[in-house]
Amino acid sequence: MNAAKKARNRVTPVVAKRFARVSGAFVVAVALAIGAGQASAPAYAVDYPSWSDVQAAQSSETAKQAEIAKIKGLIAGLASETAAAQALAQQRGNDYQEAQSKFDTATVQAGELKADAEAKQAKADASIKQAGQLAAMMARSGGGALSVNLLVADSSQAQALLYQLGAMSQLTGSTAKIYAVAERDSNEASLATAQAKVAADALGALAAAADALRQQAVEAQQALESSLQTEKSHQVDLETQLAVLSQNRVATAADYQAGVNARAAQAAAEAAAAAAAAAATRGSGGGSSYANSSGWANPLPGSHSSDEFGMRVNPVDGGYRLHAGIDLTYNGGTCGAPVYAAGGGTVTYAGYNGGLGNNVQISHGDGILTSYGHNTSLAVSYGQQVDAGQLIAYAGTTGNSTGCHVHFETRVDGVPQNPRGFMADRGVNF
Predict the structure, then answer these.
(1) pTM: predicted TM-score of the whole model, two decimal places
(2) Dihedral pair phi/psi, residue 409, rounded to 5°
(3) Over the stretch 115-163, which tens digit does the pLDDT of each residue have?
(4) Residues near 419 by beta carbon (within 8 Å), at least 6 away in sequence
(5) Closest-CA residue to 279 (of 390, 129, 402)
(6) Which domains does the chain have, with CATH numbers?
(7) What CA–CA distance (Å, rounded) separates 165 from 126?
(8) Mode of pairing for the β-strands spanning 320-323 and 310-313
């Protein structure tokens, strides 16, 4: 077994107090970040110049220069606002992905602690019964009833009975040694159970933090898209108005029409891109016809997994945490390959998401969500309805990635599931 597999298969050593302290500090930090994120600048309407304003400004050199300065400022302001929106969307994506990763890893660790507690409790129960069996062999007055109780007691009663057995003056030799082992096992089980409870209790706060930051990331992405649209819609008019004033010429009908033509060309280009995406979906077998009889589809047909679900040392930053999905790739090259929706549903995230890069998430109902990371570009937007097998993105290597692939996740009620088993249950194998 290589080092990476050993790291993935070992149980993470987690001490309850440290777990609570670290997760608690993270949640406090997230709360502060959320509070800061809720503060926003007051909204105001931008006063874009009309062509009448441009004509009026040509009446004097002073008015013309003032209008030129205003238009230049508006052009720079549009670019600045878009850059700020881009930076904010990226930061919110980073915050969300970090919070989600914290929750995912904590979920695995809590599960490990629970399993450890259950194993220790089973061992303690066995030790207590063994102590009772030895005590039953003692032909002494007063020991019989207690030993029988130990044999039939459940774990919640056994510890008290064990204490009574330890208090008996008759315990000597091997019986006392067995009692000591049972007492130790019982104490270890109690400690492990307490640790597991601390870890489980921390999950709720971590999940809430991830959900809150996710919403902020969605809002930041929508604000970015709105800013880009605003910039596109005003850019041509402003630049044309600036040219008219700077060249000191009379505005003509052609100048007025330039903005109209540019917007029409932009709309046509966007429509053509949408049509090409739809054609690519049909030509590649996408859409609902691509889904199997269970209504599910392979997001990267014919691919294989280059990395599996589980705890691992991250190949980029060296952190030890949960790899919450599987990495799908083609031997002949994956960059630019079409990525398809694994199932029908609603796009609940489409944008930058920290280490996942350009990310699409789809809600399929009943708490089921699939996620597709590291894409070069996206073919869907937030709120869009998609079918199983529909084109949603093009594979890439954005975010925390060492090469082109699709990081594919499946979640139920926010908790990551191994996509192999999840999709196999729905008739899709990798």
Answers:
(1) 0.72
(2) -120, 150
(3) 999 999 999 888 888 777 766 665 444 444 555 555 555 655 666 655 5
(4) 309, 325, 326, 408, 409, 410, 430
(5) 390
(6) 14-251 (no CATH), 304-424 (2.70.70.10)
(7) 16
(8) antiparallel
